[in-house]
Amino acid sequence: MHKSLFSFLPVGILFFVILNTGIAAVSTEKDILINDFEAETYGDWVVTGDAFGDGPAGGPLPREKKTSYIGKGLVSSKDKLVGTLTSPLFKIERKYINFLIGGGGFAGQTCMNLEVGGKVVRTAAGPNVTPGGSESLSPSGWDVEPFMGKTARLRIIDSLRGGWGHINVDHIFQSNELAEGALMQLKREILIDAGYIQLPMMLREERGETFTIEKDGRILRFMDLEFPSQGEKPDFWYSYDVREFMGETVQFCFRSSNAKVLDNLELSDKQIIDENAYKGINRPRFHFSPRIGWMNDINGPYWLDGVFHMFFQHDPLSGGPPTRGFNKYWGHVVSSDLMHWQERPIALFPDETGNCYSGSALLLNETVRGINDKIDKRPFPLLFFTGTASNPNSQHIAMSCDDGKTWNRYSRNPVFKDLGSSTRDPKVLWHEPSKHYVMLLYSDETSHGPDGFYILRSKNLLDWDIVSNIPGWYECPEFFQLESPATGEDVWVLYGCYRAVEPKINCAYQLGHFDGINFEPISDIRVAHQGPNFYGALTFVNDPKDRIVMMGWSRSNGESFEGELFNQCATMPLRLTLKNAGGIESLCMEPVEELKDLRGSPLIKAENISAASANRKLGALDNSIPLDVEARIRLQPGNSVGAVINDLLDFNFVPSTGWLTLNKNNRQECSTMIHTDNTLTVRFLIDRGIVEAFWNNGEAAYAVSALYDEKSRILEFKGDLIIDELTVYPMLNIWY
Keyword Lyase on this protein (predicted)? Predict the structure, then answer.
């Protein structure tokens, strides 16, 4: 006896059945089961290769939120194996073929095809092409009315060995109704004769469905999104850049219950940009945030020919809250002064190699065959990034021949893919003493245990050898030199997240020596930035003032910029130096001097003033004005001092112990020791959505998400203290 979604009733009897799968159907004819995969073997279906085994698989499936197949058996191929599963010939006798499908979403590689007359006339794939996702199967179906009466066969294919290299299928049947909740596999062939697809978008908390642009069986682009339902107004419009494919005929592919959704998409040379995008009440006024969509890690910053380039992990199709970034692009902005940022076209798009995870920039001064041997410009900018489609991840190169306006991938990517673990975030630099390029690469598994940075080196950027590894480190490696205040010589600074201790250190550093192969520590591992909302930071390559300048992602940890069509922002660019603090060479972070150019005339300028007097002056300020506040505090023996910002952030310093503590909403976020004498310097950058604080000339640096509240007090000092100098500047808006 076979399993079924429906009661198979006599012809002419109307029936309506809903099972716990969420699939329903209405029909006046009996449905025809093709296969429910409940038997121990595939029967007269033909198996090739190893991916599908000798018979149907049993559940439960990994990462499945709830049982999404029916009965005990289903088709579920195996990662790293390939093969096909082909049905016997059957006659198409109903208008639709319904089925459940999940797993990998790679057209032609993890799919089920319907063949008529030896040709593929319909195809379906799972929803997943990027890490994460779910194994759950979902209802899907094809309109096969044009083929009624013809003989057909089904072929389930798994030809992919990498990530999501498998396909899940269950309960295939013919019906005169599309199953309730079923998503049709839609395809539209279109000539790209204009620069942008105008996409009507919905804000969402879930990933949505995968929209792909394909040609000749290749995924040129993919994006997860949600279109409005029929008659529903979109939350926003996004002009998706397809100028790269101008003049080519491609296919738009999408799963939807609305058969016309792809037909409604239009191409245009006009880019839809909201003229009020930068005027939102929660938009930071002098911190960078993307015009639209999600941002996270800072990627590949560099300076060249008078222009700072900054890239960042980006999902423009996310819009604003509550949506998070589901796909990873490289957004791109430029600046002449590190303060005012201008949007450039997206540098890297997700494609058949997967999402574009974080990485770094390298300015190439020599000729490397196959990369820049036909281009005269030196230095020549390269981007190194992680592609996620393979298993494990792989490392890729992109290059620009037009001063960073557009970016093209190296034709023989990937340049490194040989680690049997999850790797990402390549940091690449030239090591002059050893005459090698060096790559630091995060891996979730090293020879010394879970998590760490591998060190690789290469003569030509294309062939890489693993030479050592450093255990315990996690994500977004950075590696640079700073002058030691003790010796005057340069020492290497290893930077990243460190997870081999509890609590984990989101921003850690360690000083050491590096010979091109091994990093030899000369200090313990220390907290670099107190956070708690500072992460994914990198330094600018080739700073024109020969500084080490770092920008970070202000990770909001669940808080969001309500009512805006963007989510997350960046910190200010920070200058990094080593200073002697209590006899220890400490990494200190302070805003770059360019920030002073955003200051207006002082709102408050006072000397030798008590906390009470200062608070009266501060209380008279308009709290909607973003501020840069500098204070030099005279410490009194035995008295703690501090400051409260936006009635939310509470800093408290105890001079007798040296401990500085940050509480947010009456909850302790972090604490650290700073080293002072009788005075204490502090600087606050108070903006919409973010506050940065720098104590004792950057010995303790903070970035804290803090949404604007028109009823809050902007700043209040506390404790029995005298402020020797207090200056409060209004900050100019960088957007207009």
Answer: no
